[in-house]
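Project outcomes to date are best conveyed with an example. Our students and postdoctoral researchers have been running inverse folding experiments weekly, and each run begins with a structure described purely in tokens. The record below, which covers 372 residues, was selected by the lab manager from last quarter's runs and is presented without edits.
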């Protein structure tokens, strides 16, 4: 008969992923891509939600994969709630925070509660106002102190969050093969009501100020004046969605702008799209843009996005200070391209296929557990 210690060694290491919510953002997509591909006989993910309880797209899938989901109390009480939770669950020796600089407070609580391995992960490269930027600068030394390991989606995002402290880049990797099923194109366009000869522009992202949807719609309005046989597909949800729907209606574009909420078939929808507009005010190493390039799409993006995101050579940058008309003219110049000639080999060369990245992260978790 096996001893208790031997039984314990056969059980997977449980990693506590600390997140605000489980919506359809890049961070959540990254986590779920890793979770689906990791060896769950060795490493198992559990999730603690500290803010957005209502948005939980993955609850059923997480439970089916063997994970657990916990909810903290709201407001300042969540920190006391988190401490009590960790004391009642000593099995969590590794906490991986995805709350940016604000994660410093959760990692401090984890430190006090006796959690040995405290990871912070940077998923963005900027803040959308000066108050946030100042908060990052003030919290950076504290964050570096309470974390035992620092990860980032890219070089710029890591330097922005951690300054001169060391960090490791974990690529926003994807299952590239999922974005190569071009046989979905016709059926998806039919579902969307898009004709074969219509130009379908697209965007994937939550409806928040940072994604700059208002400007995006202005750009499409200019494009539509010159290319009447065109439509815009907006995939996502968020606080500003209703405002954008009203703006589209006010501009008389309601028949040619398609709003879709958070979807699990984004890979197929990207196949249906012809060209992407991505005028974000800032991004880290954009997960969505990696997926778009995996689908061989050409992208017109704001120059506030790190240039390292241009893996296939099909990302074109334009100043966010330029007018909507100027963006529209540039987009019209770029929309005619041979999609079949877009070389995605560079995505593999850059380590952006999911399996290699999962193996590295899994090895890190296992090594941490071995040092407890």
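After processing, the design step wrote out the following sequence:
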């Amino acid at each position: 008969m096996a001893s208790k210690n031997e039984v314990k060694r056969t059980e997977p290491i449980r990693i506590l992923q600390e997140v605000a919510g489980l919506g359809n953002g890049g961070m959540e997509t990254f986590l779920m891509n890793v979770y689906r591909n990791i060896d769950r006989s060795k490493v198992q993910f559990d999730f603690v939600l500290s803010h957005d309880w209502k948005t939980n797209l993955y609850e059923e899938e997480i439970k089916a994969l063997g994970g657990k989901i916990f909810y903290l109390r709201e407001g300042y009480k969540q920190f006391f709630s988190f401490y009590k939770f960790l004391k009642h669950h000593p099995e969590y020796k590794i906490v991986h925070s995805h709350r940016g600089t604000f994660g410093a407070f959760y990692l401090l609580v984890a430190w006090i509660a006796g959690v040995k391995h405290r990871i912070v992960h940077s998923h963005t490269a900027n803040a959308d106002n000066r108050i946030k930027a100042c908060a990052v600068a003030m919290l950076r030394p504290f964050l570096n102190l309470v974390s035992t390991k620092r990860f980032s989606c890219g070089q710029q995002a890591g330097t922005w969050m951690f300054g001169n402290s060391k960090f490791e880049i974990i690529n926003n990797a994807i299952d590239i093969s999922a974005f190569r099923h071009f046989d979905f194109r016709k059926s998806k366009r039919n579902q969307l009501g898009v004709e074969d000869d219509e130009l379908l522009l697209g965007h994937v992202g939550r409806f928040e100020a940072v994604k700059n949807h208002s400007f995006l719609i202005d750009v499409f309005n200019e494009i539509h004046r010159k290319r009447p046989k065109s439509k815009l597909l907006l995939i996502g949800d968020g606080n500003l969605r209703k405002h954008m729907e009203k703006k589209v209606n006010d501009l008389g574009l309601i028949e040619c702008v398609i709003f879709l909420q958070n979807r699990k078939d984004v890979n197929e929808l990207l196949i249906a799209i012809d060209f992407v507009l991505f005028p974000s005010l800032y991004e880290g190493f954009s997960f969505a843009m990696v997926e778009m390039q995996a689908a061989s799409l050409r992208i017109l993006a704001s120059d506030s996005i790190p240039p390292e995101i241009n893996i296939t050579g099909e990302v074109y940058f334009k100043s966010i200070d330029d007018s909507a008309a100027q963006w529209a003219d540039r987009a019209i110049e770029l929309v005619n391209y041979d999609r079949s000639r877009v070389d995605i080999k560079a995505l593999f060369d850059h380590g952006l296929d999911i399996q290699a990245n999962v193996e590295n992260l899994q090895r890190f978790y296992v090594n941490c557990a071995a040092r407890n």
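The chain has 15 helices and 13 strands. The CA atoms of residues 47 and 102 lie 17 Å apart. The training component of this project remains on track.
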